[in-house]
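fyi for ur records
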Amino acid sequence: MNSQDEIHLLLQTFQDGYIRRDLTQVDTFMQLFSDDAEVIGTNGVAPGVEEWYRDRASARELVVGDWEGWGDLRIDLDAMSVRHRGDVGWVAAPATVTKIIGEDNYASFLDFVKHLLDDSKLSPEQKLLHILRGGTNTVYELRRGEKFVWALRFTAVVVREANGWKFAQMNFSFPTIYFPDVRLME
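which gave:
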């Protein structure tokens, strides 16, 4: 099997794990990553903060969280771009995350509001702005239907180790046409 096919097999194995989402197999699944793999989830803002993991052991938290409740990840393996030079390769692919949302999202948002109101770090104005934005988004999205499909970009760097190709870096990102959700304030 050539390197291109081996990298495709790594991606197929990754996709299969996300399809099954068997939490009893998460440690075996994590063997797809190098020990020092860096994994950046959609909530990753800075190294070591939120969903920006600096090694395989900590990246396990992202995988478990995804498998428990993120949604149905589907990487378009037919449209992915795979390149490699020697023992290093890089991958880019369109993907989707599909989740069925429903009336329980109203209650979930209200639970968020309760916790937000107790947050002493935010000013009353900031709390109100978060409530207004989140409430509007919740109503808007639920009125559009219960099937919610996010477009996603999946990129990764892979390296060939003694026991095969492994993920050395991975990034999940959402395209956006409006203001991004995270804004750094000076």
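The first helix runs from residue 3 to 20. thats all i got for now
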